Amino acid sequence: MAQNRTLKNKSGMKKYRKLISKKFVIVLSLLCYLIACVFTPFYYANMPAEDYLFGSLFCLLWGWAGILFHEGFLKVYFLAWYSNITYVFAIRSLIKDKYKCFLTLNSITFGLSLLFAFCPEVKIDESGHTQKITMAAGYYLWVGSFFVLLIGGLYVLFVQNREGDKRLMNDGRMKSKQQIFFLTKSDIVKMMSMVEIRIPIEYTLLGAFKQEAIRRENTISNFSKLGHTGCANWISLDNRYMVLPLNNEVKYRIVKQRNGSFHYIVDLVSNPTGVELSTGGIYDNAEHVLIAGRVAVFTDSSIEAMQIYKEILRAMNKCFTKKNNIFVSQEVLSLLEDGWRLTCNYNAPCENDFK
Could you tell me if 65 and 42 lie in one domain? Predict the structure, then answer.
Protein backbone atom coordinates (compact mmCIF):
# COMPACT_ATOMS: atom_id res chain seq x y z
CA MET A 1 0.00 0.00 0.00
CA ALA A 2 2.78 2.39 0.90
CA GLN A 3 4.55 1.64 -2.37
CA ASN A 4 1.35 2.26 -4.36
CA ARG A 5 0.84 5.54 -2.52
CA THR A 6 4.40 6.58 -3.35
CA LEU A 7 3.91 5.77 -7.04
CA LYS A 8 0.65 7.74 -7.07
CA ASN A 9 2.36 10.73 -5.45
CA LYS A 10 5.21 10.60 -7.99
CA SER A 11 2.73 10.34 -10.86
CA GLY A 12 0.78 13.28 -9.48
CA MET A 13 3.92 15.36 -9.10
CA LYS A 14 4.95 14.60 -12.71
CA LYS A 15 1.55 15.69 -13.99
CA TYR A 16 1.73 18.85 -11.88
CA ARG A 17 5.23 19.70 -13.15
CA LYS A 18 4.10 19.09 -16.72
CA LEU A 19 1.06 21.35 -16.24
CA ILE A 20 3.22 24.13 -14.78
CA SER A 21 5.72 23.77 -17.64
CA LYS A 22 2.96 24.05 -20.24
CA LYS A 23 1.54 27.14 -18.57
CA PHE A 24 4.97 28.75 -18.41
CA VAL A 25 5.67 28.09 -22.10
CA ILE A 26 2.26 29.37 -23.21
CA VAL A 27 2.41 32.49 -21.02
CA LEU A 28 5.94 33.32 -22.16
CA SER A 29 4.96 32.88 -25.80
CA LEU A 30 1.83 35.03 -25.42
CA LEU A 31 3.86 37.68 -23.60
CA CYS A 32 6.23 37.93 -26.56
CA TYR A 33 3.22 38.06 -28.88
CA LEU A 34 1.55 40.90 -26.95
CA ILE A 35 4.77 42.91 -26.71
CA ALA A 36 5.17 42.49 -30.48
CA CYS A 37 1.82 44.24 -30.90
CA VAL A 38 3.30 47.38 -29.26
CA PHE A 39 6.27 47.75 -31.61
CA THR A 40 6.12 48.35 -35.34
CA PRO A 41 6.87 45.23 -37.43
CA PHE A 42 8.75 47.13 -40.17
CA TYR A 43 9.63 50.64 -41.27
CA TYR A 44 10.34 52.48 -44.51
CA ALA A 45 11.67 55.86 -45.56
CA ASN A 46 9.59 58.87 -44.40
CA MET A 47 7.26 56.61 -42.46
CA PRO A 48 4.50 58.63 -40.66
CA ALA A 49 4.75 58.79 -36.87
CA GLU A 50 1.31 57.22 -36.35
CA ASP A 51 2.49 54.13 -38.26
CA TYR A 52 5.25 53.65 -35.70
CA LEU A 53 2.66 53.70 -32.93
CA PHE A 54 -0.13 51.67 -34.51
CA GLY A 55 1.69 49.70 -37.24
CA SER A 56 1.59 46.32 -35.46
CA LEU A 57 -2.06 46.66 -34.47
CA PHE A 58 -2.98 47.60 -38.04
CA CYS A 59 -1.03 44.60 -39.41
CA LEU A 60 -2.73 42.29 -36.91
CA LEU A 61 -6.22 43.46 -37.84
CA TRP A 62 -5.79 43.92 -41.59
CA GLY A 63 -2.73 41.90 -42.58
CA TRP A 64 -4.95 39.15 -43.97
CA ALA A 65 -5.98 41.53 -46.75
CA GLY A 66 -2.42 41.96 -47.97
CA ILE A 67 -2.89 39.18 -50.53
CA LEU A 68 -5.83 41.12 -52.00
CA PHE A 69 -4.15 44.50 -52.39
CA HIS A 70 -0.72 43.41 -53.59
CA GLU A 71 0.15 42.02 -56.95
CA GLY A 72 2.33 39.21 -58.28
CA PHE A 73 4.65 37.35 -55.97
CA LEU A 74 4.16 39.96 -53.22
CA LYS A 75 0.89 38.17 -52.36
CA VAL A 76 2.86 35.15 -51.12
CA TYR A 77 4.63 37.11 -48.39
CA PHE A 78 1.32 38.12 -46.84
CA LEU A 79 0.41 34.49 -46.23
CA ALA A 80 2.53 35.06 -43.11
CA TRP A 81 -0.46 36.71 -41.43
CA TYR A 82 -2.31 33.38 -41.32
CA SER A 83 0.24 32.07 -38.84
CA ASN A 84 -1.80 34.00 -36.25
CA ILE A 85 -4.61 31.51 -36.81
CA THR A 86 -2.47 28.36 -36.73
CA TYR A 87 -0.79 29.78 -33.61
CA VAL A 88 -4.08 29.62 -31.70
CA PHE A 89 -4.70 26.02 -32.73
CA ALA A 90 -1.10 25.08 -31.87
CA ILE A 91 -1.63 26.35 -28.32
CA ARG A 92 -4.84 24.33 -28.12
CA SER A 93 -2.99 21.20 -29.26
CA LEU A 94 -0.30 21.74 -26.63
CA ILE A 95 -2.91 22.04 -23.89
CA LYS A 96 -4.58 18.81 -25.04
CA ASP A 97 -1.27 16.88 -25.40
CA LYS A 98 -1.83 16.21 -29.12
CA TYR A 99 1.79 15.65 -30.14
CA LYS A 100 1.53 15.29 -33.89
CA CYS A 101 -1.06 18.04 -34.25
CA PHE A 102 1.02 20.44 -32.15
CA LEU A 103 4.21 19.73 -34.05
CA THR A 104 2.47 20.12 -37.42
CA LEU A 105 0.60 23.32 -36.54
CA ASN A 106 3.55 24.99 -34.83
CA SER A 107 5.89 24.14 -37.68
CA ILE A 108 3.39 25.66 -40.12
CA THR A 109 3.05 28.71 -37.87
CA PHE A 110 6.79 29.27 -37.63
CA GLY A 111 7.32 28.62 -41.33
CA LEU A 112 4.58 31.01 -42.44
CA SER A 113 5.84 33.76 -40.15
CA LEU A 114 9.30 33.56 -41.74
CA LEU A 115 7.83 34.27 -45.19
CA PHE A 116 7.44 37.97 -44.43
CA ALA A 117 11.14 38.31 -43.62
CA PHE A 118 11.81 38.12 -47.37
CA CYS A 119 9.17 40.69 -48.36
CA PRO A 120 11.03 43.48 -50.25
CA GLU A 121 8.30 46.13 -50.31
CA VAL A 122 4.71 46.98 -49.43
CA LYS A 123 2.04 49.32 -50.66
CA ILE A 124 1.86 52.46 -48.51
CA ASP A 125 -1.18 54.26 -49.90
CA GLU A 126 -4.36 53.83 -51.93
CA SER A 127 -2.61 55.03 -55.06
CA GLY A 128 -0.54 51.86 -55.12
CA HIS A 129 2.83 53.44 -54.30
CA THR A 130 5.31 50.97 -52.80
CA GLN A 131 8.26 51.40 -50.48
CA LYS A 132 11.14 49.12 -49.59
CA ILE A 133 10.85 47.94 -45.99
CA THR A 134 13.20 46.87 -43.22
CA MET A 135 12.05 44.48 -40.49
CA ALA A 136 11.81 45.95 -36.99
CA ALA A 137 11.44 44.78 -33.38
CA GLY A 138 7.72 44.02 -33.66
CA TYR A 139 8.29 41.44 -36.38
CA TYR A 140 11.14 39.70 -34.56
CA LEU A 141 9.17 39.54 -31.32
CA TRP A 142 6.20 38.14 -33.26
CA VAL A 143 8.32 35.37 -34.80
CA GLY A 144 10.02 34.87 -31.43
CA SER A 145 6.67 34.11 -29.77
CA PHE A 146 6.15 31.22 -32.22
CA PHE A 147 9.69 29.96 -31.69
CA VAL A 148 9.24 30.00 -27.89
CA LEU A 149 6.07 27.93 -28.23
CA LEU A 150 7.76 25.48 -30.60
CA ILE A 151 10.86 24.82 -28.50
CA GLY A 152 9.05 24.94 -25.16
CA GLY A 153 6.25 22.70 -26.41
CA LEU A 154 8.67 20.14 -27.77
CA TYR A 155 10.41 20.01 -24.41
CA VAL A 156 7.17 19.59 -22.46
CA LEU A 157 5.57 17.02 -24.75
CA PHE A 158 8.59 14.91 -25.66
CA VAL A 159 11.36 15.27 -23.09
CA GLN A 160 9.15 15.27 -20.00
CA ASN A 161 6.93 12.50 -21.34
CA ARG A 162 9.93 10.31 -22.10
CA GLU A 163 11.09 10.79 -18.53
CA GLY A 164 7.61 9.80 -17.39
CA ASP A 165 7.78 6.58 -19.41
CA LYS A 166 10.46 5.04 -17.19
CA ARG A 167 9.10 2.82 -14.40
CA LEU A 168 10.07 -0.06 -12.13
CA MET A 169 8.51 -3.34 -13.13
CA ASN A 170 7.14 -5.90 -10.65
CA ASP A 171 10.65 -7.33 -10.38
CA GLY A 172 12.00 -4.33 -8.48
CA ARG A 173 15.63 -5.09 -9.34
CA MET A 174 15.40 -4.09 -13.00
CA LYS A 175 14.37 -0.81 -14.57
CA SER A 176 12.00 -0.84 -17.47
CA LYS A 177 10.10 1.31 -19.93
CA GLN A 178 6.38 0.97 -20.37
CA GLN A 179 3.55 2.55 -22.30
CA ILE A 180 -0.03 2.34 -21.07
CA PHE A 181 -2.98 2.14 -23.45
CA PHE A 182 -6.73 1.58 -23.67
CA LEU A 183 -7.44 -0.46 -26.81
CA THR A 184 -10.01 -2.94 -28.06
CA LYS A 185 -9.28 -6.26 -29.76
CA SER A 186 -9.57 -4.76 -33.24
CA ASP A 187 -7.23 -1.93 -32.23
CA ILE A 188 -4.57 -4.35 -30.98
CA VAL A 189 -4.84 -6.52 -34.10
CA LYS A 190 -4.48 -3.42 -36.28
CA MET A 191 -1.44 -2.20 -34.31
CA MET A 192 0.37 -5.51 -34.16
CA SER A 193 -0.38 -6.32 -37.83
CA MET A 194 1.69 -3.25 -38.72
CA VAL A 195 4.53 -4.52 -36.53
CA GLU A 196 4.29 -8.04 -37.99
CA ILE A 197 4.74 -6.61 -41.48
CA ARG A 198 7.83 -4.61 -40.52
CA ILE A 199 9.72 -7.22 -38.48
CA PRO A 200 9.43 -11.03 -38.10
CA ILE A 201 7.95 -11.71 -34.65
CA GLU A 202 5.90 -14.28 -32.81
CA TYR A 203 3.95 -14.46 -29.57
CA THR A 204 3.78 -16.69 -26.55
CA LEU A 205 1.87 -16.42 -23.30
CA LEU A 206 3.58 -15.07 -20.19
CA GLY A 207 2.94 -16.61 -16.78
CA ALA A 208 3.00 -19.93 -14.93
CA PHE A 209 1.89 -23.12 -16.73
CA LYS A 210 1.36 -26.69 -15.61
CA GLN A 211 2.53 -28.19 -18.90
CA GLU A 212 5.92 -27.83 -20.56
CA ALA A 213 4.49 -27.33 -24.05
CA ILE A 214 4.36 -23.59 -24.81
CA ARG A 215 1.87 -22.20 -27.28
CA ARG A 216 3.40 -19.97 -29.95
CA GLU A 217 1.62 -17.96 -32.65
CA ASN A 218 2.86 -15.87 -35.58
CA THR A 219 -0.03 -13.41 -35.36
CA ILE A 220 -1.80 -11.87 -32.37
CA SER A 221 -5.26 -12.46 -33.85
CA ASN A 222 -4.93 -16.23 -33.29
CA PHE A 223 -5.51 -15.77 -29.55
CA SER A 224 -9.28 -16.11 -29.10
CA LYS A 225 -9.45 -14.36 -25.70
CA LEU A 226 -7.63 -11.28 -26.95
CA GLY A 227 -9.45 -8.08 -26.00
CA HIS A 228 -11.14 -9.53 -22.89
CA THR A 229 -9.92 -10.01 -19.35
CA GLY A 230 -11.24 -11.62 -16.20
CA CYS A 231 -8.85 -9.65 -13.99
CA ALA A 232 -9.94 -6.39 -12.40
CA ASN A 233 -6.40 -5.00 -12.28
CA TRP A 234 -4.51 -3.76 -15.35
CA ILE A 235 -1.39 -5.79 -14.41
CA SER A 236 -3.54 -8.82 -15.17
CA LEU A 237 -2.71 -12.49 -14.93
CA ASP A 238 -4.43 -13.30 -18.19
CA ASN A 239 -3.84 -12.13 -21.74
CA ARG A 240 -0.19 -11.31 -21.08
CA TYR A 241 1.90 -12.01 -24.15
CA MET A 242 5.60 -12.01 -24.83
CA VAL A 243 6.53 -10.64 -28.23
CA LEU A 244 9.88 -11.98 -29.41
CA PRO A 245 11.86 -12.45 -32.63
CA LEU A 246 10.56 -15.20 -34.91
CA ASN A 247 11.89 -18.71 -34.12
CA ASN A 248 13.63 -17.41 -31.01
CA GLU A 249 14.04 -19.99 -28.23
CA VAL A 250 11.54 -19.51 -25.41
CA LYS A 251 13.21 -20.16 -22.06
CA TYR A 252 11.35 -20.98 -18.87
CA ARG A 253 12.05 -21.64 -15.21
CA ILE A 254 10.84 -24.83 -13.55
CA VAL A 255 9.43 -24.36 -10.05
CA LYS A 256 8.48 -27.36 -7.94
CA GLN A 257 5.22 -27.04 -6.02
CA ARG A 258 4.47 -28.36 -2.54
CA ASN A 259 2.33 -31.17 -3.91
CA GLY A 260 5.23 -32.42 -6.01
CA SER A 261 4.02 -31.01 -9.34
CA PHE A 262 5.93 -28.51 -11.44
CA HIS A 263 5.13 -25.08 -12.85
CA TYR A 264 6.85 -23.74 -15.94
CA ILE A 265 7.41 -19.98 -15.60
CA VAL A 266 7.74 -17.90 -18.79
CA ASP A 267 8.87 -14.32 -18.08
CA LEU A 268 11.08 -11.55 -19.44
CA VAL A 269 13.81 -12.26 -16.92
CA SER A 270 14.52 -15.57 -18.65
CA ASN A 271 13.92 -14.13 -22.13
CA PRO A 272 15.89 -10.89 -22.63
CA THR A 273 14.87 -10.68 -26.31
CA GLY A 274 11.17 -10.48 -25.39
CA VAL A 275 8.75 -7.62 -24.86
CA GLU A 276 5.68 -7.79 -22.61
CA LEU A 277 2.31 -6.99 -24.19
CA SER A 278 -0.48 -7.03 -21.60
CA THR A 279 -3.58 -6.24 -23.59
CA GLY A 280 -6.16 -5.71 -20.82
CA GLY A 281 -9.51 -5.29 -22.55
CA ILE A 282 -13.22 -5.56 -21.81
CA TYR A 283 -13.74 -6.70 -18.21
CA ASP A 284 -15.86 -9.86 -18.27
CA ASN A 285 -17.17 -9.53 -14.70
CA ALA A 286 -18.86 -6.14 -15.11
CA GLU A 287 -20.64 -4.14 -17.77
CA HIS A 288 -19.11 -1.28 -19.73
CA VAL A 289 -15.62 -1.47 -18.25
CA LEU A 290 -12.37 -1.44 -20.22
CA ILE A 291 -9.17 -2.38 -18.37
CA ALA A 292 -5.91 -0.74 -19.39
CA GLY A 293 -3.07 -2.62 -21.08
CA ARG A 294 0.61 -1.92 -21.49
CA VAL A 295 3.71 -2.72 -23.50
CA ALA A 296 6.88 -2.99 -21.43
CA VAL A 297 10.55 -3.88 -21.81
CA PHE A 298 13.60 -3.97 -19.56
CA THR A 299 15.90 -1.05 -20.36
CA ASP A 300 18.95 -3.31 -20.30
CA SER A 301 17.34 -5.85 -22.65
CA SER A 302 18.77 -6.98 -25.97
CA ILE A 303 18.84 -4.92 -29.16
CA GLU A 304 16.11 -7.19 -30.57
CA ALA A 305 13.77 -6.45 -27.66
CA MET A 306 14.32 -2.70 -27.90
CA GLN A 307 13.65 -2.84 -31.65
CA ILE A 308 10.34 -4.65 -31.10
CA TYR A 309 9.37 -2.16 -28.37
CA LYS A 310 10.12 0.81 -30.63
CA GLU A 311 8.18 -0.71 -33.54
CA ILE A 312 5.13 -1.20 -31.31
CA LEU A 313 5.36 2.41 -30.11
CA ARG A 314 5.74 3.58 -33.72
CA ALA A 315 2.57 1.71 -34.67
CA MET A 316 0.75 3.19 -31.67
CA ASN A 317 1.78 6.70 -32.67
CA LYS A 318 0.54 6.12 -36.20
CA CYS A 319 -2.80 4.53 -35.32
CA PHE A 320 -3.94 6.14 -32.08
CA THR A 321 -4.14 9.34 -30.07
CA LYS A 322 -1.99 10.03 -27.03
CA LYS A 323 -3.80 11.79 -24.20
CA ASN A 324 -2.35 12.29 -20.72
CA ASN A 325 0.56 10.07 -21.79
CA ILE A 326 -1.84 7.17 -22.54
CA PHE A 327 -2.71 5.89 -26.01
CA VAL A 328 -6.41 5.56 -26.88
CA SER A 329 -8.20 4.76 -30.13
CA GLN A 330 -11.22 6.47 -31.66
CA GLU A 331 -13.29 3.40 -30.85
CA VAL A 332 -12.30 3.63 -27.19
CA LEU A 333 -13.05 7.37 -27.09
CA SER A 334 -16.52 6.53 -28.42
CA LEU A 335 -16.96 4.01 -25.60
CA LEU A 336 -15.91 6.69 -23.12
CA GLU A 337 -18.55 9.05 -24.51
CA ASP A 338 -21.12 6.25 -24.13
CA GLY A 339 -20.38 6.03 -20.40
CA TRP A 340 -17.81 3.23 -20.26
CA ARG A 341 -15.21 3.19 -17.48
CA LEU A 342 -11.59 3.25 -18.64
CA THR A 343 -9.61 2.16 -15.63
CA CYS A 344 -6.45 0.46 -14.46
CA ASN A 345 -8.29 -1.11 -11.53
CA TYR A 346 -12.02 -1.85 -11.46
CA ASN A 347 -12.02 -1.79 -7.65
CA ALA A 348 -10.40 1.64 -7.47
CA PRO A 349 -12.52 4.82 -7.07
CA CYS A 350 -14.04 6.11 -10.30
CA GLU A 351 -12.27 9.48 -9.89
CA ASN A 352 -9.03 7.68 -10.74
CA ASP A 353 -10.40 6.54 -14.11
CA PHE A 354 -9.18 7.85 -17.45
CA LYS A 355 -11.28 10.86 -18.44
Answer: yes
- Indicate whether 293 and 202 sit together in one domain: yes
In whole angstroms, what is the distance from residue 244 CA to residue 267 CA? Answer: 12
pLDDT at residue 174, rounded to an integer? 54
Q: In sequence order, what are the beta bridge partners of 134?
A: 43
Query: What residue numbers bound the domain in which 150 lies?
Result: 2-164
6 pLDDT band, cuts 50/70/90, is very low
Alpha helices in the chain (DSSP H): 2-36, 49-62, 66-69, 74-77, 83-95, 99-115, 137-154, 160-164, 185-198, 303-319, 330-337
CA distance 120 to 73: 11
Kindly give, in sequence order, each residue whose CB lies less than 8 Å from that of residue 241, ignoring residues fewer than 6 positions away: 203, 204, 205, 206, 220, 223, 276, 277, 278, 279
Phi (first) and psi of residue 5, to 5 degrees: -65, -40
Helix count and strand count (H, E) for the chain? 11, 20
- Predicted TM-score (pTM) of this structure: 0.52
* Phi, psi for residue 59 in degrees, rounded to 5: -65, -35
